[in-house]
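ERR on first pass: missing label on line 2. Operator R.T. fixed the label and resubmitted. Corrected input:
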Amino acid sequence: MQTVHALDPLRNAVAELRSRGPVALVPTMGALHDGHLTLVREAKSRGASIVVSIFVNPLQFGANEDLDAYPRQLARDSALLEAEGVDVLWAPTVEAMYPAGFASNISVAGVSEGLCGAARPGHFDGVATVVCKLFNQVMPDMALFGEKDWQQLAVIRRMARDLDLTRPAADAILGVPTVRETDGLAMSSRNAYLSAGERAAAVALPTAMRKAIAAIEGGEPVPATLATLEADILAGGFRAIDYAELREAGGLAPLAARADTPMRLIVAARIGSTRLIDNMAVAPA
Ligand code: PAF
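pass 2 clean. output:
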């Protein structure tokens, strides 16, 4: 595996990969877990050479968020990627990504509003901007993202469609199902912040979500089911709910009743000082 920290060596390394066949990009912020490695394995199963980026993107952190505390473990992450057979690790410095004078911003309306967009103003502008740059830097044939960040995936696909991106094209932006711990908690770099007690309690989130989905699919009214979902999560040890909503899966339109299109139940809740998100599919009526 070749590790590069600047744009010229990255472009040389990717040109060499492209001469051999398709190239896949797996964008990450590091602190890798099995969810990330699943993205790498999925790319590999598609016969692609693999570029993984690790960049803790300051643009997507709010003023009072955890940018400084965000785990940075490049040596450990690098060993994990090497063992997976990744071809290139793209680990730009902040100065390489945002040189002095950098002044541009990509803002995707609609899908980035509400849900995490409401609780984290500017977050999705930061995500769209860095992902657009990563796409232009690597110019991959496909890019893979975890479905755990469902709204993020919708924002990135919208951006790719709206800006007529070709490397990758919108339909080559692939969502990979969330990888879960054995008790059902979605894997996340933020799980590392949980105390042992919080980690044990955190299973209340996916458990309550599965119960709510069974209720909605069984014909229970959505507003009452969402109220019960919130109560169940709080009773399980969470201290606050940022949101718990049923949304149309693609465009993320809010739904007050079960619809005949693919839907997601999407939740963000706080346990101790950690904010966890999760989402699951709800079968169409
Ligand atoms: O999901 C993440 O890890 C980040 O938001 C991403 C897509 C790598 C952009 O910084």
